[in-house]
Amino acid sequence: MSARRVRLGADRLLAGEVDLGGRRWGLLTNYTGTTSTLELTSVKLAESTAPLVALLSPEHGVRGTVQAGESEVSAHDPLTGLPVLDTYQLSDEALDAAIGMLDIDTLLVDLQDIGARFYTYVWSMVDCLRSAARLGIRVVILDRPNPLGGVVVSGPGLAPGFDSFVGRLDVPIRHGLTIGELGRVAAALDRAEGEAAPDPEVVTMSGWRREMLWADTGLEWVLPSPNMPTPETALVFVGTALFEGTTLSEGRGTTRPFELVGAPWLDQRWAADLNSRELPGVHFRPTWFQPTFSKWAGTPVGGVQVHVTNRDTFDPLRVGTQMLLAAHRAPVPGDQTGGDQSGEFAWREPAWEGDHQRPHFIDLLWGSDRLRHLIDDDDESGLAEELAKAAQLRQRDEALLLYERGH
Q1: pLDDT at 197 over 60
Q2: In this predicted model, which residue has the larger pLDDT, 189 or 4?
Q3: What residues have CB less than 8 Å from 43, skipping those under 6 apart?
Q4: How far apart are the C-alpha atoms of 238 and 240, rounded to whole Å?
Q5: Distance set, CA 346 to CA 222, 231, 265, 321, 374 (Å)
Q6: 7-58: per-residue pLDDT in tens?
Q7: CB-based contacts of 56: which residues, under 8 Å, 6+ apart?
Q8: Cα(first)–Cα(last) distance of the chain, in Å?
Q9: What angle do CA 253, 165, 67 make, to 5 degrees?
């Protein structure tokens, strides 16, 4: 498919194609909220006659200067002079109080998601959508492409008791939704639970079709967070982010996060095992690296670089789960048996809150404890069943989709 320029929801709003009305707007955004010509939506709105009075920020902050799990401390945006409300992981009560103090009647959203359930920007949006519903504020989402397209969905939904900030809603891991569509699904699921959840308004894109990956849009890539440098990173992230739930490095602290995965006890036999599985669209190159921060910082580790050779056949979740299986059974260096489980592989220990033990982080990423048990049991057929669960969820949400496939 030849590249074409998609017009974003922000483009259409700034071009005057939609009239939102309202007397005081807040904008949930960060540096990914740009027009197709790479101008910040927040700045363009502030320069116009739009009644924009405040910005709200997700994880990493408005400017994206901090790492995962952090937010910026600045209370004002230096480019617009507007106050900034940090929404990251606020309680419902604190978020309601903070948004209420802004005295807005319209909340706009312009954030770039990457299409994986455990990417947090959409959950900042859902938290704000729910707060807006409680406060009687309407929500308008300026829609943007899903970099992974909107056709392929994969992985299970969210089991009861496993909701967190890496997954608020029962959607597949590779959910195949734009951020506008996900907002509509969120409202529908909340209404099904008896909550007051009006549908958000969506300023749709023009020119986007469900089969488009990022390269098909004609848009420039603005890295959505510090460890998401390229569209290829976003594609592999869907599978290799699962290593965040293990003691292996997922490549944070390198120039190829989520493409490089490894640990001190791994050697070239891991790559050989993975390549012998003949997974479509991918090649595993044995490599060594030394993270500058995060897990194994300053320590040389062995592992693989995930090279996507065919983006159309590459299945990131299948690849990620196969990598976990192979790492779980990988021998330590010096063990020449080639197949005995080394005992080095481990899941990150769950955190405690007072006297309450939270789920393992891998369980929060997967949406249940099923993956952890399947890997521990070396159950490949059970993994295949887990990956196929997305189809039922897509059928449930079909009526809420806003875009069609091309012809």
Answers
A1: yes
A2: 189
A3: 79, 80
A4: 6
A5: 34, 29, 12, 15, 14
A6: 999 999 999 999 999 999 999 999 999 999 999 999 999 999 999 999 999 8
A7: 26, 27, 28, 29, 84, 85, 86, 87, 99, 107, 128
A8: 12
A9: 25
Residues 38 and 24: their CA atoms lie apart, in Å, by 25
What CA–CA distance (Å, rounded) separates 42 from 160? 37
**Nearest-5° angle of CA 173, CA 176, CA 181?**
110
Q: How far apart are CA 253 and CA 296, in angstroms?
A: 9
Residue 356, pLDDT > 90, answer no
| Residue 64 pLDDT level (bands cut at 50, 70, 90) | low
Percent of the chain with pLDDT over 70: 92
How many Cα neighbours within 13 Å face the side chain of 8? 27
The 10s digit of each residue's pLDDT in 285-304 is 999 999 999 999 999 999 99
Output the six-digit token pair for 172.
């597949």
**Residues 270, 303: Cα–Cα separation, whole Å:** 7
Q: Which two tokens stand for residue 271?
A: 């790559």
Q: In the numeric block, which tokens belong to residue 347?
A: 């899941």
Report d(CA 402, CA 339) in Å as an integer: 48
Report field, pTM of the whole predicted structure over 0.90: yes
Long-range contacts of 15-22 (CB under 8 A, 24+ apart): 18/203, 20/106, 20/108, 20/140, 20/201, 21/106, 22/51, 22/105, 22/106, 22/138
d(CA 124, CA 242): 21
314-352 pLDDT, tens digit per residue, is 999 999 999 999 999 998 766 555 444 445 899 998 876
